[in-house]
TrEMBL record:
UniProt keyword list: Secreted, Signal
SUPFAM superfamilies (alphabetical): TNF-like
Domain of life per record: Eukaryota
Compartment(s) where it occurs, according to its Swiss-Prot or TrEMBL record: Secreted
Domain C1q, first and last residues per copy: 62-201
Protein name: C1q domain-containing protein
Taxonomic lineage: Eukaryota, Metazoa, Spiralia, Lophotrochozoa, Mollusca
Primary localization: secreted
tRNA processing as UniProt keyword: no
């Protein structure tokens, strides 16, 4: 009887040990699954963050690929030497990068641009202008009319590289004339300034 009781106690002890082992195993499985879920969530969060950055970058690039402006003078203007021409009528500005208050374009991106400006003047008058990028002359244009020439306009084009945040403007030159006469309107023609981004670099 004692032997039987010992065997019975041994069986119960073995059953408790098995039950405890299963419980420990179950707890271990739960922890493993929790670790796996946490790791999966971390990876998913990283992928979402990467995707968000990619979308934002592509959206900015799409916006930057359409940079252009066109501005005109609203009235007759006479400027001395080394004076910025303030084209104060914005006809078009994709990106709001041209300031009609000071006549300066600030590039939102590094790229190759085409700029052009048109000057309109009349008989007996002269205009000496140049396009500057960060105060470096990239192109010049001079009009000097005789007394019976009438109203004449001239346009200059230039293609150049511009860095992000560079300032671009038109100003009068230093030596050809001290009085630059800009006629703002003649039969629909106006003195104007424009720029178009050709491609990003």
């Amino acid at each position: 009887m004692v032997y039987f009781s010992k065997r019975l106690l041994l069986v119960f002890a073995l059953m408790d040990f098995i039950s405890l082992s299963n419980s420990i195993q179950n707890d271990s499985d739960v922890e493993s699954r929790m670790d796996f879920l946490q790791s999966s969530m971390d990876r998913m969060e990283h992928r979402i963050l990467t995707l968000t950055k990619t979308v934002n970058r592509l959206s900015k690039r799409k916006k930057d690929e359409h940079v252009m402006f066109y501005a005109t003078l609203s009235s007759d203007t006479v400027l001395n030497i080394n004076s910025i021409v303030k084209f104060n009528e914005i006809q078009f500005d994709e990106g709001a990068d041209f300031n009609s208050g000071d006549g300066v374009f600030v590039s939102p991106v590094s790229g190759v641009f085409m700029f052009s400006w048109t000057t309109l003047t009349y008989s007996g008058k002269s205009i000496d202008t140049e396009l500057r990028v960060e105060n470096v002359v990239k192109a010049k244009q001079i009009i000097s009319l005789g007394s019976s020439a009438g109203s004449i306009q001239s346009t200059q084009f230039v293609i150049c590289r511009v860095n992000e945040k560079d300032h671009v403007w038109i100003q009068t030159g230093a030596g050809f004339t001290t009085e630059n006469f800009f006629d703002h309107l003649f039969k629909g023609s106006k003195s104007s300034f424009m720029g178009i981004l050709l491609h990003v670099v």
